[in-house]
Amino acid sequence: MARACNIHHNNSRYVQASQRAIALIAEMIHTASLVHDDVIDDASSRRGKHTVNKIWGEKKAVLAGDLILSAASIALARIGNTTVISILTQVIEDLVRGEFLQLGSKENETERFAHYLEKTFKKTASLIANSCKAASVLGCPDPAVHEIAYQYGKNVGIAFQLIDDILDFTSCSDQMGKPTSADLKLGLATGPVLFACQQFPEMNAMIMRWFSSPGDADRARQYVLQSDGVQQTTFHLLFIQQDDYISSRVSNKKSGGKELLVFPLFPS
């Protein structure tokens, strides 16, 4: 994103040190959030490895996550741009708000999917969206470009999470590097589950009780596999890709035809 914005602004392929720092800071925030997530979820493995809380215990894991966040804050302050500081601190607020959203549930099916997408944005997409925006702010003064970068990052982030939710039902634990159906076991209804619920209304009761009754998680998984929940989630992914492509083309026309960023999220 940094290189794309720099080329768009002054035909320079050079990525500034401050823009590279954004990538470093984003990765630190992301890592800290995963460490804290694993504590909240009492997870024992991630990416095929034992989690920090599994090795060191919850208290040390929380402190480790805090330490990483403090290092990210120091690196962010060194950039010395108040706009960028505001943009990236929004990510941390969104991560916390996303966790609170995850604790809630909606009875209405339409509200439930909107709630899921909002939670997905705050817990996953906000990091990518705001990191892309921060990199664009450092490379180009045009607010329209900042918005393009933000929207692109948002779409990438939501798409990433939807793919992860699909893989939870279509891959094995070895491929995922973590237990499959983990979200169901945590009581969480992701995209494939919400779409499957349209074909199997009996899943509504399971969702509202957070799949807490014996056998709920296994039955819900079977319902998802019998339904078109995975296919519908994939269709939603394609919609995001199309929307991102169209938005980029429109933005290019508004900027006098200069290419900024036009390539598919998921190359065929």
List the keywords:
about 270 residues; mainly alpha; Farnesyl Diphosphate Synthase; globular; Isoprenoid_synthase_dom_sf; magnesium
What is the CATH C level class of one domain, in words?
A: Mainly Alpha
Largest sheet: 2 strands, antiparallel
Task: Tally the beta strands.
Answer: 2
Q: Outline, from the CA principal axes?
A: globular
CATH architect. name of one domain: Orthogonal Bundle
Tally of helical runs: 13
Describe the oligomeric state of these chains in a short phrase: single chain
User: Which strand-content bin applies to the residues?
Assistant: under 5%
Which fold name is given in CATH as the topology of one domain?
A: Farnesyl Diphosphate Synthase
* Termini gap: 21 Å
How large is the radius of gyration? 20 Å
Overall structural class, as computed from helix and strand content, comes to: mainly alpha
Q: Helical residue percent?
A: over 70%
Low-confidence segments = none
How are strands sequenced across the largest beta sheet?
Answer: 1-2
CATH superfamily of one domain: Farnesyl Diphosphate Synthase
The H/E string reads HHEEHHHHHHHHHHH
Family: Belongs to the FPP/GGPP synthase family.
Cofactor: Mg(2+)
Enzyme class: transferase
Pfam families: polyprenyl_synt
